[in-house]
Amino acid sequence: MAATTALEQGRLATTALDVFATEPLPPDSALWELPNVLLSAHTAGLSVHENERIVTLFCENLRRYLAGEDLLGHILPTRLY
Known about the structure:
alpha+beta; 2 domains; 2 strands; elongated
């Protein structure tokens, strides 16, 4: 992994990661031992309200889709968000 090498060599000062090519991050990954790396499960932001919010958003977007309206949370690749 290029990022791991850059971190080990000091070419990259630090990083915070929560998504990996292999999930979960393998126990033998060098990333676990690097002091300049913050690792977090990408489920760290879970909430007891998450499922309710997902269902509410889905239902609203389904209503909008069927009505030909713009969807909420639409990604704009040209703006990189």
